[in-house]
Amino acid sequence: MPRTIWSGAISFGLVTVPIHVVSATEDHSIHFHRVHLADMGRVRNRKICEIEDREVSSAEIGKGYEYSKDTIVPVLDEELREMPLPTAKAIELVAFMPAESIDPIRVGDGYYLEPDGQVAAKPYMLLVKALQRSSKVAVAKYAWSGRERLGLLRVRDNVIVLHAMRWEDEVRSPADLAPEPVELTEQELVEAEHLINRLTRDDLEGEEFTDRYTKAVEELIDAKREHREPPTAGEEPKEPGQIVDLMAALKESVAKARESRGEDATVHDMPKKKTAAKKTAKKQPAKKTAAKKATAKKTARKPRSA
Fold this sequence. Notes:
With about 300 residues, the chain is α+β, with helices and mostly antiparallel strands. The protein has six helices and 13 strands.
């Protein structure tokens, strides 16, 4: 079981739900130590007091706010915990809204909220069922790690999930990043929609959704530990070049998506064949006319030869 990060309560109007907060995710990344390459000795950070010029222990270290260049105000963790904030000891629900109305860029890490004992089971499930029936998420305020935060509560498999949210002024505007206006043809948009449809999935399961980087690092470490040559990258990926023919790139992408699903990659080229057929059909009457003229000429020549 993951350890409890924070204990408190959900404040839902006059209803209070005691909860424990546990992490909803796991980090499977491979972590490295910093070492001295000459002898593989560990390289560590030392915490040095600038005034006494000596290393200090964690028990001697606290928080201080630099009020001015010569003045630092000490602030104790106990003082932060005892501040007169309703959100210091409770996750206060302040609004409910449709999930799609919240910009995903504001949504951060997720945490599971576990009911604290049987006494919390009924109000906890009341909130779970109410959120499910309303098809909404709750927006909350809470105070962790020395600051008040905004959060989003939703339900996952009958368990409440709290997502940390960024305040509005913490999200940079993308206004200056958009490209200059360009012209797109209807055919290009249709082809892009074909590609989106071909790559549409109902889940995120499969080989393409596995962490290949971590597996490659594990193989590299095993090879070096066993004193053998590590796996090579093989053919180097081609440098991305300038797009010359957007339609050709889209059609090739659709064909590859079809092949990856075991479909006939040439099916999407049918409209092209129909266009060619139409052009051929238009030319056929001209050929027939030419044939008739040739026959008429032959018929006209026969009397002359007689």
